[in-house]
Specification:
Length: 138
């Protein structure tokens, strides 16, 4: 009886430890900012232009880094809080249900405004065909 209790206790401790290690490994492997392209489509009646739609997932506290988009960006915050800092302007915070517009080549940085919860943004871009969705800045 005593031996069974010791074995159960040992299994519990080992299982808990392995669960904690596995959780840390999975958390460490998550990309801070992940872009999932949903659609790329030529714009009918507008020669040389295309629309792109993507979902941007930001881990808690993640920062996009300074960048710009070659074309118009429209973004809708699906979940969480996004803080947007446009170069030379005061940061603005957007929450779920709010929309953002960035004109072409406007340098900005996005940041998940929460250190504990992820943020998710639906992004619409209107670009010249062949342009990258974003251009990083130093």
């Amino acid at each position: 009886m005593k031996r069974t209790a010791v074995l159960i206790g040992f299994a519990f401790v080992v299982g808990t430890g392995m669960g904690m290690v596995a959780g840390q490994v999975l958390h460490a492997q998550q990309e801070p900012v992940k872009s999932t392209m949903l659609l790329t489509k030529d714009l009918s009646g507008i020669a040389g232009k295309e629309a792109r739609v993507a979902v941007i997932d930001l881990a808690p506290g993640a920062v996009t880094g300074k960048h710009f988009h070659p074309g118009h960006e429209f973004a809708y915050v699906l979940e969480g809080v996004l803080t947007l800092t446009v170069e030379g302007q005061v940061a603005v915070t957007y929450k779920a249900g709010e929309m953002i517009h960035q004109p072409p080549k406007q340098i900005h940085t996005g940041k998940n405004g929460s250190t504990t919860a992820p943020a998710k943004v639906l992004q619409f871009l209107i670009l010249d065909k062949g342009q990258p969705p974003a251009v990083p800045m130093k």
